[in-house]
Amino acid sequence: MSNNRVKWTPELTSKLVALRNFGVTLDQIAKDLGVAYSAVVNKLKQVRPLLRAGVTPTVTPEVTPKVTPEVAIEVELPKPEFGRLPLESVDYGGWLRYGLVSDTHLCCKEERLAELHNLYDIFKQEGLTTVFHAGNPIDGYIQRINGESVFSSTIDGQAQYFADNYPQRDGIKTFFITGDDHESWFAPGFNIGAYMQAVAEKEGRTDLQYIGHVESDVEIKTGAASTLLRIQHPGGGSAYARSYSAQKVVESLEGGEKPGILVLGHWHVSNYMQERNIHVVCMPGMQDQTIFARKKRLRMEVGGAILEFKVNPDDGAVTRCRVEFIRYFTRAYYKRYIRSDSKLVGGHLVLNR
After folding, report:
1. In a domain, 21, yes or no
2. Which of 51, 76, 172, 224 is the least crowded, having the fewest Cβ atoms under 10 Å away?
3. Which residues pair with 274 in a beta bridge?
4. When comparing pLDDT for 54 and 307, which is higher?
5. Is 250 helix (H, G, I), strand (E, B) or coil?
6. Where does 126-191 have alpha helices with state H?
7. CB-count exposure of residue 104 (10 Å: 0-12, 13-18, 19+)
8. Alpha-carbon distance 110 to 292, whole Å?
9. Could you give the 3-state DSSP secondary structure of residue 314?
10. Predicted local distance difference test score (pLDDT) of residue 69
11. Residue 2's pLDDT is what?
């Protein structure tokens, strides 16, 4: 009887309606009744009103539907025991505190030397003894970029300017790195950072310590464990978002080489974030926006920072961290405090007519 010409008896029709009302598929109905699939489809069109009305069939189908109705089962999950997390797991010991500064670019007319000394006064007032400098302590020299900005275009002149003018406060040591730009423009392969320290020591200064080129890892020991603080002067220009370039730096780090805290100079833009469990501090600079920066549409923020954090003594993990940025306004804002700037015009042409 597996053909389209089916004699639909009342009993056969009743079975069809019953099976469909029980939710049996059309394929299965055709097999159970021994008729063609198309015959089932055509007949269902005729009896659709019965299906919609939910008419109870007069004949109980002999075939048991293969649809199992859902049954609500009450399940009770075991409740976990409440475990109290001890305070010392995230708040052990005292705060470790360091001053941060970057991109001072000394020996150029856009330097913010007064603000840099003010920042060190704050460091001294806060009781800090260690400051980390994230690169570009001097401006270097390339004629096409800063040729009309520097007070001296020689290595000796800028190194001496650094030794004579960089802030010196009793009890504070500054550990600085150099970048592969600016100060490294002078002579590729020449260790300008070590030379700058030597010139400073010749002047009797032992507070300026060179610790590496482009980046330096500082191991801070707390008990049996240690925390890695990385000071880095990366490359590339600022991105459309202030966090983007730093995010790409962190993404490139190998899993076993990640520091607990990463301090980044170079971009002159302040930002703090956590990425891949690294506390990332992007530093402002200590230099006004230069003509070159305006040409390249680079924003330049002026300021420094105080870094404070706590660590787990068992594994050195940074459990708490906070960064205070100390920002400065434009130089003209401080005219009333700096007598030498009382007649500051701003470097533009003024015509009296």
Report:
1. yes
2. 76
3. 279
4. 307
5. helix
6. 143-146, 155-165
7. buried
8. 11
9. coil
10. 57
11. 45
If asked whether residues 104 and 166 sit together in one domain, one would say: yes
Contact yes or no for 111/155 (Cβ under 8 A): no
* 3-state secondary structure (DSSP) of residue 319: strand
pLDDT above 60: residue 60: no
pTM over 0.85: no
- The range of the structural domain enclosing residue 59 comes to 1-68
**Spatial distance between the Cα atoms of 198 and 179, rounded to a whole number of angstroms:** 18
Contact in structure between 313 and 92 (CB atoms under 8 Å): yes
Length of the chain: 353
**Beta-carbon neighbour count of residue 11 at 10 Å?**
11
Q: Is the confidence at residue 186, as pLDDT, over 60?
A: yes
Of 192, 60, 172, 78, nearest to 116 (Cα)? Answer: 172
Question: Are residues 203 and 252 part of one domain?
Answer: yes
Task: Say if residue 64 is in the same domain as residue 119.
Answer: no
249 sits in which H/E element: helix 244-251
If asked whether residues 154 and 197 sit together in one domain, one would say: yes
- The pLDDT assigned to 40 comes to 82
Give the count of domains, the chain: 2
Domain assignment present for residue 73? The answer is no
pLDDT tens figures, 96-141: 999 999 999 999 999 999 999 999 999 999 999 999 999 999 999 9
* Residue 80 Cα distances to 77, 83, 89, 111, 241, angstroms: 9, 9, 21, 60, 44
Where do we find the tokens 């042409």? Answer: 349
Find, among 248, 229, 228, the residue nearest to 238 by Cα: 248
Distance separating alpha carbons of residues 343 and 353, to the nearest angstrom: 20
32, part of any domain: yes
Instruction: Based on the fold, state whether residues 39 and 119 are members of the same structural domain.
Output: no
Work out the angle at residue 32's Cα, subtended by the Cα atoms of residues 29 and 33, and round it to the nearest 5 degrees.
Answer: 85
Answer whether residue 157 is part of any domain.
yes
Q: Is the pLDDT of residue 61 over 90?
A: no
